[in-house]
TrEMBL record:
SUPFAM superfamilies in UniProt: ABC transporter transmembrane region (SSF90123), P-loop containing nucleoside triphosphate hydrolases (SSF52540)
Keyword Kinase tagged: no
Protein name: ABC-type multidrug/protein/lipid transportsystem, ATPase component
Entries under Gene3D superfamilies matching the protein: ABC transporter type 1, transmembrane domain, P-loop containing nucleotide triphosphate hydrolases
Length: 577
């Protein structure tokens, strides 16, 4: 995190300098206060006026310096966390999909909304607090030495007590901060799930059950927050109590020295005032280190994302052309399950086993098979979701591992079963912030079948689709996703069960429209086996237990009367029923 302080080093350094300058003003004011008391004791009225004018000037200048310090401090604080947020978001967006899906999206939201706030206050704020207070402490010690070295040494020795004792409790603070962060993360996940599932909760009449669960989670997060706050308060109060000794010691010692003629009354007042410039920095330093301890686990979590989610294909091919074929050769892929063996190691499940097939450019290819046969996994490997497979996947003879993800996505577009839409207009959801002419947008709308939707809405393509497309039907969402791919002129369209949640008529219309696209390679996964559509595919690849068991056209596979024939006839029977 320290590198982000360096990005705002000028604001940070000047804020510290102005804080020290303001401290000089308050220290000088302490001497003036002592002088005022002394001239009053001595009965020097003219000197009293002069000291009073000096005090007024110093107070005004100190106030101005404190204001400038606050402005510079706020600038440093906001800029530092802005850089962290920017790098954090960029790291997530540039990470491999496999890294992203390892975490619940709510965890990222919690890091953005909660953890970043903690880092801003308890890390960046605390670093400034510690450094500026160290400077103030040294300045205060130097001033009290200038006043009287006996009092200074006594105060310095006494000051060690409130500095050392709270450090013993740092482990408690660290644990409390980590526990609170983890609990807050889980609480965020629960709340988002409940709000996202509002209709299900109401529809199944489980409001009371959900509310009871919410009360439990709310109780847990409150308990963790209370524990963290109590731990911090304990350290601060111990420090404050012990710091009270610093006021008593110079007062008693100064009075003793004055009685013996070795000091003066005004000096006693100045010494007591200067204790503030020793006690306050000590309390600030202790508080700063305490807050650093509470945020250590949170910072580590953010840094873990920043370090782990860096793109690993920076040395890969920047550009490539898909003009020949995609080839899977002896591909094997396994993933770890949530189950453990007797040794405590995660059990791996092999999804693909010596997978071999080839797809030529321009072909329309359908992957079919029972649930768990590996169809969607094939698509994810092709799109570089995962890299821990054996065998080879090549595009025009180039190894997929040697092709940069950004280059791949400039040729391959995936349309998912659940299309995500921004709460924006139809046009902006198609454009996705990219610079395209209106004529290109209109062309994509026409060829994707979105024109009827545009024409029936008074706002046309400026119609706002609502949160995640809540104002659109499932078919309209899929057509909008198709329009995105058409606008980008992607040569390869990858479809993962895009019609599974649609009615039969809409599903058939959309699939037919995609298959009619010229000069497009289509790789689709589907459970819907419609004869008229199946006949339009150049190749149907049948997967079973992670292997290719059949491959051919619809007519060829029907004549074989094997696996595909069974799948087709079973689906036909279910459709009739």
């Amino acid at each position: 995190m320290f590198k982000y302080i360096l990005k705002s080093k000028f604001s940070f350094c000047f804020a510290v300098l102005f804080a020290v300058a303001a401290s000089f003003g308050t220290v000088y004011f302490a001497f003036l206060l002592g002088n005022i008391i002394q001239v009053a004791v001595d009965g020097k009225l003219s000197a009293l006026y002069a000291e009073g004018i000096k005090a007024a000037i110093i107070m005004t200048l100190t106030g101005a310096l404190n204001f400038i310090t606050s402005v510079l401090y706020n600038n440093y604080l906001t800029n530092s966390i802005r850089h962290v947020r920017s790098d954090f978001f960029n790291s997530i967006m540039n990470s491999r999909i496999s890294f992203f899906i390892e975490r619940n999206s709510n965890e990222y939201i919690s890091m953005f909304l909660t953890d970043m706030s903690l880092v801003e206050t308890n890390y960046f704020g605390s670093v400034f607090l510690i450094l500026s207070n160290i400077c103030l402490f040294l300045f205060g010690i130097a001033s009290i030495f200038y006043l009287n070295w006996i009092i200074a040494i006594t105060v310095l020795v006494t000051a060690l007590v409130p500095m050392v004792v709270p450090g013993i409790l740092s482990g408690l603070l660290r644990k409390a901060g980590k526990d609170y962060s983890s609990a807050l993360e889980k609480f965020t996940v629960y709340v988002k799930d409940y709000l996202s599932g509002f209709e299900v909760i109401k529809g199944f009449n489980i409001v009371k059950k959900v509310y009871a669960n919410f009360l439990l989670q709310n109780k847990i997060i409150t308990k963790k927050k209370r524990a963290k706050d109590n731990s911090t308060s304990a350290v601060q109060n111990i420090s404050s109590t012990l710091g009270g000794l610093l006021f008593f010691v110079p007062l008693l010692l100064g009075a003793y020295l004055s009685l013996n003629g070795k000091f003066y009354i005004g000096g006693v007042i100045t010494a007591v005032q200067l204790v503030n410039h020793i006690l306050s920095p000590i309390q600030g330093i202790v508080k700063g280190f305490a807050e650093l301890n509470t945020v250590r686990a949170v910072s580590a979590k953010i840094l873990d994302v920043l370090k782990t989610n860096k793109p690993s294909d920076t040395d890969c091919v920047e550009k490539f052309d898909f003009t020949d074929s995609i080839k899977f050769t002896d591909v094997n892929f396994s993933f770890k399950t949530n189950e453990n063996d007797l040794s405590g190691n995660s059990i791996e499940r092999q999804v693909l086993k010596n997978l071999n097939f080839e797809i030529n450019t321009g072909e329309k290819v359908l992957l079919v098979g029972k649930t768990g046969s590996g169809k969607s996994t094939v698509l994810k490997l092709l799109l570089k979701y995962f890299k821990n497979y054996s065998g080879s996947i090549t595009i025009d003879g180039k190894n997929l591992c040697d092709i940069k993800a950004e280059s791949l996505y400039s040729k391959f577009g995936m349309i998912h079963q659940n299309v995500f839409l921004f709460d924006d207009t139809i046009e902006n959801n198609i454009r996705l912030g990219l610079n395209f002419q209106d004529t290109e947008i209109d062309k994509a709308i026409k060829h994707s079948g979105l024109l009827p939707l545009i024409e029936k809405n008074p706002d046309g393509k400026k119609f706002k689709v609502g949160e995640n497309g809540s104002k659109l039907s499932g078919g309209e969402k899929q057509r909008l996703a198709i329009a995105r791919c058409l606008l980008l002129n992607l040569p390869v369209l990858i479809l993962d069960e895009i019609t599974s949640s649609l009615d039969a008529e809409t599903a058939q219309e959309i699939e037919k429209q995609i298959l009619s696209l010229q000069d497009k390679t289509v790789i689709a996964v589907s459970h819907r086996l419609n004869k008229n559509l199946l006949a339009q595919y150049n190749k149907i690849i049948v997967l079973q237990d992670g292997r290719v068991c059949e491959c051919g056209t619809f007519d060829e596979l029907i004549r074989l009367k094997k696996i595909f024939y069974s799948l087709y006839t079973l689906e036909a029977v279910e459709r009739i029923q």
